[in-house]
Amino acid sequence: MDAIARIETSLGTGIVKVLQRLTEGELTTSDTCNVLLPIIRGGGNDVDYKQVQAIVWDAGLAQSMKTVGECLAAALAGGQEEAGNAEEAA
Predict the structure, then answer these.
(1) Contacts of 35 (CB under 8 A, 6+ apart)
(2) 50-65 pLDDT, tens digit each
(3) Less Cβ crowding at N or C end of the chain, within 10 Å?
(4) If pLDDT is split at 50, 70 and 90, which confidence band does 79 have?
(5) Start-to-end Cα distance in the chain
(6) Measuring CA to CA, which residue among 70, 13, 8, 62 is closest to residue 35?
(7) Confidence check: pLDDT of 45 > 50
(8) Against a cut of 0.70, is the pTM above it?
(9) Where are the domains of the chain?
(10) Hey, what long-range contacts does 80-87 have (CB within 8 A, 24 or more apart)?
(11) Shortest CA distance to 38 belongs to which of 66, 63, 62, 8?
(12) From CA 25, how far away is CA 9, in angstroms rounded?
């Protein structure tokens, strides 16, 4: 949740709108880096924005945008999957 909140704050819009901008081809490279920064940090990596830019450059913009899409989709589905698993366990 913290990473999602940070993404929404840095981009000034909700996570669903961010995903929509991505699918419509309107997510900028700066937006891509701003999405990846809290995700990478959330994985326990101490990186800054410049390092994320280098990662995006090395991986390629298309791959980076694909990764952003996968991460955002997983974040949106995560709460539903957890709720479903909790109901099944009960």
Answers:
(1) 7, 11, 18, 27, 68, 71, 72
(2) 999 999 999 999 999 9
(3) C
(4) low
(5) 24
(6) 8
(7) yes
(8) yes
(9) 2-89
(10) none
(11) 8
(12) 20
